[in-house]
Every structure is written in C-alpha cells, then in structure tokens.
Amino acid sequence: MASKRLRALAAGETETLKTDMSPMIDMVFLLLIFFMVTSKMIIIRQDKNVVPSVALESKPLSEARGRIVVNLTKDGTVMDINGKVINLSDVENLCRTKNELNQKAGIKTKLHIRADHRSDMRDVKKVVTAGANAGVIDVVFATFRHQSKK
C-alpha cells in the first residue's frame, strides 16, 4: 500500500497511476461462459401447418417445465412435437407417462394444445379428454397475441 503512494508521489503530476483492467475483463468472460454453459435452452418445434387463433388477452407462459405439447391441424390430425402423427390413445399414454415423471420431480403437468384456428372444437375436446383421462387437468392453448394499433 505504501509503495503505491510513494510511486504516485514520485511520478509527479504529469504521470498517473493506471489500473490494469485485464483481470476484470477475464472475470466477465468467465461469468459469461459459465452462464452460457449452465443455462438450459428450451426449443419448441412449431408445425407450420398449425396456425393458432389470435387472442386479445394472450400472455406468455410463466413456467415452461412440465408441458406436454400437442399439435392439432385443421383436419383433426393430432401430432406430437416432433411432427409424428399420433392417435388419442397415444396422447393419453404420453400424458400418463409424463405426468408420472413430473409428479416424482414435483412439477405440475400441463397439456399445451397448439390447435389450428380452423380446427373443429370437437377434436380439441377429444384431446383435452384424453389428457384428463391420464390425470392431466391443466390445459393451455397456444394463441397469437393480437397487435392493437395505437
């Protein structure tokens, strides 16, 4: 501590002490890398053939964990997130399996339905019923947010 003061006094008024910023920059990069490595990216594959409805009061989901995403096309075809066509018994089995895993982990399971805006409501009801038969009673519907003109 005293040596820094002596160097500052000896330097005179024309020279100033300089702070080495490289350790701080190294720490910032290390923190950046740490958070990039430890973060978990959530990727939801969206089917281009499914165009959800537009809603005035839609809001993003607060919790992404525990979701079972099912797509429903306008002709009533049910697909999983990988685009594979599944039937209602597959939906029920998928919901039952995921619900059991989520319950063990203490996560609440939600059935996330991405239904096309032209799909029949009876088909949506069948998917909801299949989820309810498996014990999944929370249902979330995907919608686009209405962009109001101001």
Strand content: 15-25%
Q: What is the radius of gyration?
A: 27 Å
CA distance, first residue to last residue: 61 Å
Question: What is the share of helical residues?
Answer: 25-40%
The largest sheet has its strands arranged as 4-3-2-5-6
Q: Would you tell me the overall average pLDDT? A: 82
Going by helix content, strand content and strand pairing, the class is alpha/beta
Biggest pleated sheet: 5 strands, mixed
Secondary-structure arrangement, i.e. CATH architecture of the largest domain: 2-Layer Sandwich
Q: Element order, helices and strands? A: HHEEEEHEHEE
Low confidence ranges: none
Coarse shape: elongated
Instruction: Write down the CATH topology of the largest domain.
Output: Nucleotidyltransferase, domain 5
Number of strands: 7
Detailed description of the structure:
The protein is of the alpha/beta class. The protein folds into two domains: 2-38, no CATH class; 53-145, 2-Layer Sandwich (Nucleotidyltransferase, domain 5). The protein has helices at residues 2-11, 22-38, 88-105, 121-133, and strands at residues 53-55, 67-72, 78-79, 85-86, 110-115, 138-141, 143-145. The strands form two sheets. The protein has a five-stranded mixed sheet with strand order 4-3-2-5-6. Helix 3 (88-105) packs across helix 4. The longest helix is centred in the middle third of the chain and has 18 residues, at 88-105.
Record keyword descriptors for this entry.
150 residues, alpha/beta, Nucleotidyltransferase, domain 5, 2 domains, five-stranded mixed sheet, elongated
